[in-house]
Amino acid sequence: MGDTFEHRPGRTITDADNIWMTLLTMNVQPVHFDAAYAAQTEWKKMLVDSTLTLALLTGMSVRTVSAKVVANLGWDKVRATHPVFAGDTLYAESTVLSKRESRSRPTQGIVTVSTRGLNQNGVEVMSFERTMLIHKRGHSPEDAANY
């Protein structure tokens, strides 16, 4: 516990990423896809949909903290702490908060991490906790599939 992992590479968000996510999720808030509307807001440009930020930061952490996941059990304490715009490059880091063996699944354990997303200037844009059910060593499908 307490180990911190930097998730690299970073990812630069484009207008296309943001507009596609907005369309895919049926988010009708025009600040995410209508530049003329967004120009009239306090931001003066389109905001990146925060669910894209959450998905991206979660995805960035997979290789390091959840490659052997059985299931995501939940996201808690999600905070959008700074606006994200197209052109921003995001980086993520996760710190292990807790881990324990599963009481009902002896070949699996439960791990909770705190993840922070930072932009290219080192400003935190989002933070959250994620709890996962994880295969123990020697018990994942990766072993049987020769990954």
UniProtKB/TrEMBL annotation:
<protein>
    <submittedName>
        <fullName>Molybdenum cofactor biosynthesis protein MoeC</fullName>
    </submittedName>
</protein>
<dbReference type="InterPro" id="IPR002539">
    <property type="entry name" value="MaoC-like_dom"/>
</dbReference>
<dbReference type="InterPro" id="IPR029069">
    <property type="entry name" value="HotDog_dom_sf"/>
</dbReference>
<dbReference type="InterPro" id="IPR052342">
    <property type="entry name" value="MCH/BMMD"/>
</dbReference>
<feature type="domain" description="MaoC-like">
    <location>
        <begin position="2"/>
        <end position="114"/>
    </location>
</feature>
<dbReference type="Pfam" id="PF01575">
    <property type="entry name" value="MaoC_dehydratas"/>
</dbReference>
